[in-house]
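Consider one such protein record:
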Amino acid sequence: MSTPVPFAKGATEHILLPRMANRHGLIAGATGTGKTVTLRVLAERFSRQGVPVFLADVKGDVSGIGQPGTSHPRIDQRKIDVGLADFVFEGFPVQFWDVFGEQGHPVRATISDMGPLLVGRLLGLNDVQGGVLSLVFKIADDQGMLLLDLKDLRAMLTHVADNAAAYRTNYGNVSAASVGAIQRGLLALETQGGNQFFGEPALDLDDLLQTGPDGKGVINLLAADKLINSPQLYATFLLWLMSELFERLPEVGDPDKPKIAFFFDEAHLLFNDAPAFLQQKIEQVVRLIRSKGVGIYFVTQSPLDIPDTVLGQLGNRVQHALRAFTPRDQKAVRTAADTFRANPALDTATVITELGVGEALVSLLDEAGKPTIVDRTLIYPPASRLTPLTPEERKSAIASSLVFGVYEKVQDRESAYEKLQARAAASGEEPGVPSPKITAEKPSPFIKTATSIGTSVLRSMGTQMGRTIVRGVLGSLMGAVLGKAVSKPRTRR
């Protein structure tokens, strides 16, 4: 049984109960009101309880969480204010990740893993273009063509467009204009670093679910100060990661503590311009992932950034100050106040606008799963170092990581691009133009293809249940029932 650890103090100490931590949460407040410190303190509490954490370092100022903090006037005063006589500075086990491979281990996914719905959102496709992309994925699945990186998807798009007549009967019409729009989107994505994100070796989620030798949960820190400049890539990657956790983890009901705590900073990007059907699927993942032992914590400026269907599932609330300068600001204040269980001693709407830096309104779930009465609190000080790591310190931490060397070298095994090139060469055609005779053949059974290509390919194509779930929840197409080799969890040194 995990020991509850308080993280804020008002009229009483406020404790996020480990057994209720998978009921999700919200950290909201205007810029500069203390959201990042609250995120850091909660991450430390989870790690101390042996719960792995994943969070995105959007501003580049959280990397010091791996080192013990030092005395500082504000920290010292906060210790006095909340009565922490036994406060000890400490660091926490950290693993650094970076889509661009510059400030952490490279983190990648394959095109097949992400599926047409998320790839379509990443490219900003409309319904017609998204339908064509889904058709291309279906043809690739039926023919056993692995889509691992951007060149695989480009080759498959060209192949389907050039042989549209041969596919029309079984799959429907392929619009040349839509294919062109998708190809242009891929070029734009490549300039944002998409070519570095898509490929292999793909991220093994077991590497996010580690504990250190002292029993603390490893804090997986995604360097996102550069990634946030490509907001669609940032949001789509985190949504994919969230859905992969849902896919991979078994049902556990209500565990004593979460298997992982997942912090989604700048959460408004997840929902910006998302079509209604995608918002519904996100809501579905958030609702169902709780039973997998995953606690999701959305971090954003205003509760209005989160759709009501998702906001209603966030049982643990930390609300920092909001400013009421505009009608929308005033609505946000009223919305935030109305989501709390009322406290007769507080005018919640007024207090929200009066909170100082590091103060927050807090309401958490009690043992019975009911929200506690809202209370005005001070957030406890972090035990880790507030200043970021130096480049040399970060480099040393990466080199000493258990997974160092696992993701650093790109793999480029045979996939759709190579197969289509080989077909063209065998038929005497120009490279990249597959034979119509081959493409007109009846699609090969996907399961038969998968059986012959080994464990590593199975990992790219999907789990026995997981790929069906993900492509059901997130609108993908690969429905074949496949076996998947479950990687052996690494034991941290």
